[in-house]
Amino acid sequence: MSQIDQFLGSLKRSLKAKNILYRDLAETLNLSESSVKRILSSKSLSLERLEEICKATDLSFAEICRNAQFEEEGHVFNLNAEQEFALAENPRLLHYFVLLHEGKKPQKIEKEYELNSTEAKKMQLQLDRLGLIELYPKDRVKILGTGALRFRRDGAVGKAMFTFTKNHYLNYEFNGELDFIRFSLVGLNQKSLNKFKAKIEKMNFEIQEEAKFISDNDKESDDIGILFAFRPWQYSDMGALKKKV
What we know:
Elements: H1 3-17, H2 22-29, H3 33-41, H4 47-57, H5 61-68, E1 76-78, H6 81-89, H7 91-101, H8 106-112, H9 117-129, E2 133-136, E3 140-143, E4 148-150, H10 156-169, H11 190-216
Parallel strand pairs: 1-4
Antiparallel strand pairs: 2-3
Helix pairs in contact: 1-5, 2-3, 6-7, 6-10
């Protein structure tokens, strides 16, 4: 994720935090709502236009930069083998750590999940011993790592999550109100795949940013599993006609 994308993401979060809708900003700037959406989605936002937006919304450039939390491209928080093994062995501990990494406070987790303070304390101590968090007075914790949390595909957690996803996630009808699935068989080359992979990575980042905003602002949400994937593959019946060599 480029720093421009991270800055624009911070700007959008700042507008949401102030409950400023695109149509409200459009009216203030004497633009159409579609123009505002295009401006906030493009990488050609001029400094003059940015200054107009800041004045109209009572935001400062410095504030937006502070909230952007700029990270180097591809910077991730990787766990070592011991940490991953301990989390893979204890699904509740894994879930608790993921919630902490997402920015949820221990008190909020106990309030929203079936977890008593005694078990929470034990898990905090275990995460502290593993070097994943630091404990502070009044149940405050600090995550010892920066960047997006990623589990290695060949690590203990990655293997467990991949196996579970492969066996259970797609074994479902996808016909509920919140469900969505699309599948396509297409012909693409490596250059095209790289282009769409970059777009998927950007979309995944935006989804995580949206989830963080919802969590930080105590908004109601549903737990949603999102899977992106592509691979060389041919449906068996689609091989009925063989290509000429």
